[in-house]
């Protein structure tokens, strides 16, 4: 198909013209989801720029390197039957964050309103409040936006796998992946990871941005191909599978509410376990400190005893030495006295000889 034919297909697509009729759907809602700052808003700008073929405008207010800019769930009407939705991105892959993603993806939160990122009870309340505003006639088509600049870790790959499978369960469609910043990292490696997860269709773009919106045929054609692929996929699902949008919306709501509740319980349980482990570690630390203090005390007492013993022994030795010296002196004295008794008197002998 050349560009004109693709444009014709996109412009004239209507769910009513599907084989089984629209089955209660009246427009495609292309739901963009993904992490903060990966190029969701820029992709919307790119879609509008290519589709309208006019001056570049920052319609979706793409901004900031680190993301976190888009806070509303805003719809951008492309044709009578195709609308793009710029959802609020999530900061990390985390089971509790997924509740919010599923609520947006499942179209259970109102369009055109600020998304107050929430978990647990707050989210349940918002879903319940939005029930009357939600149209079940939207055919939800999930499109995951990922920037090639960000490498995917093994853990993230596992998280993405479960995210994509739930997205399929919720919407009936396995998400298409759009890779942005396609020259900012390894495109082949990133594509490989998404293929491993089970993604069948991957498109890669260098988005048109405020700084660089020089038109290229490659980008234009790739974007039109992307839209045609979405249409063909929607036709497949509406023609081949009997659908009941009202029942599906109710089931989606039930699933997400259950998910949020269970994720909240699991997170609370994990927090409790973490707290218990922290307290146990704290107790063990105190115990170890006490044991160490007792060991040191024992060492000090032992040293004192040894010192006393040593002193006593020294004293004993000194006493023994003194005793033996005294004994020796006594013996010497006795010897002297004994010698004195044996010697003749000198004066007496002189006197005798004079006589
Ligand atoms: N070079 C280049 N820059 C891009 C591309 N896509 C997005 N950007 C830039 O990346 C930044 C973030 O893009 P956004 O489109 O705002 O991302 P986002 O996913 O909407 O972000 P949040 O709404 O904040 O979650 C902006 O400065 C864009 O100009 C791309 O394909 N190539
Ligand atoms: Mg944005």
Indicate the radius of gyration in whole angstroms.
45 Å
SSE pattern, N- to C-terminal: HEHEEHEHEHEHEHHH
Query: How many strands appear in the DSSP assignment?
Result: 7
Question: What are the distinct ligands in this entry?
Answer: guanosine-5'-triphosphate, magnesium ion
Quick one: biggest sheet?
7 strands, mixed
What portion of residues is helical?
Answer: 55-70%
Instruction: Please give the order of strands in the largest beta sheet.
Output: 4-2-3-1-5-6-7
Mean of all residue-level pLDDT scores: 89
The name of the CATH superfamily reads P-loop containing nucleotide triphosphate hydrolases
Strand content: 5-15%
Which architecture would the CATH scheme give at its second level? 3-Layer(aba) Sandwich
User: So what's the overall shape?
Assistant: rod-shaped
What is the SS-derived class?
alpha/beta
């Amino acid at each position: 198909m050349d560009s004109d034919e693709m444009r014709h297909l996109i412009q004239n697509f209507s769910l009513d013209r599907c084989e089984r009729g629209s089955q209660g759907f009246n427009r495609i809602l292309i739901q963009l989801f993904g992490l903060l700052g990966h190029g969701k808003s820029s992709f919307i700008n790119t879609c509008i720029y290519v589709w309208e073929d006019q001056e570049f405008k920052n319609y979706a207010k793409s901004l900031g390197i680190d993301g976190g800019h888009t806070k509303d769930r805003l719809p951008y009407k492309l044709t009578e039957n195709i609308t793009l939705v710029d959802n609020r991105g999530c900061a990390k892959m985390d089971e509790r964050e997924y509740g919010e993603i599923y609520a947006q993806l499942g179209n259970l939160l109102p369009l055109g309103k600020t998304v107050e990122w929430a978990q647990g009870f707050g989210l349940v309340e918002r879903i319940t409040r939005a029930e009357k505003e939600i149209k079940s006639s939207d055919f939800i088509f999930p499109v995951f936006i990922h920037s090639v600049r960000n490498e995917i870790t093994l853990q993230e790959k596992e998280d993405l796998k479960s995210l994509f499978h739930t997205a399929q369960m919720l919407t009936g469609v396995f998400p298409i992946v759009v890779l942005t910043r396609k020259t900012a990292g390894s495109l082949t490696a990133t594509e490989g990871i998404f293929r491993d997860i089970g993604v069948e269709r991957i498109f890669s773009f260098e988005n048109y941005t405020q700084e660089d919106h020089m038109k290229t045929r490659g980008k234009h054609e790739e974007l039109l191909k992307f839209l045609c692929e979405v249409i063909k996929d929607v036709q497949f699902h509406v023609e081949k599978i009997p659908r009941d949008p009202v029942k599906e919306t109710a089931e989606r709501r039930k699933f997400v509410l259950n998910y949020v509740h269970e994720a909240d319980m699991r997170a609370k349980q994990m927090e409790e376990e973490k707290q218990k482990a922290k307290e146990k570690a704290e107790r063990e630390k105190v115990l170890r400190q006490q044991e160490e203090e007792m060991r040191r005390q024992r060492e000090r007492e032992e040293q004192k005893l040894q010192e006393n013993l040593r002193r006593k022994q020294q004293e004993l030795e000194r006493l023994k030495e003194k005793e033996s010296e005294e004994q020796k002196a006594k013996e010497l004295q006795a010897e002297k006295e004994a010698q004195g008794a044996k010697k003749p008197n000198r004066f007496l002998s002189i006197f005798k000889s004079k006589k």
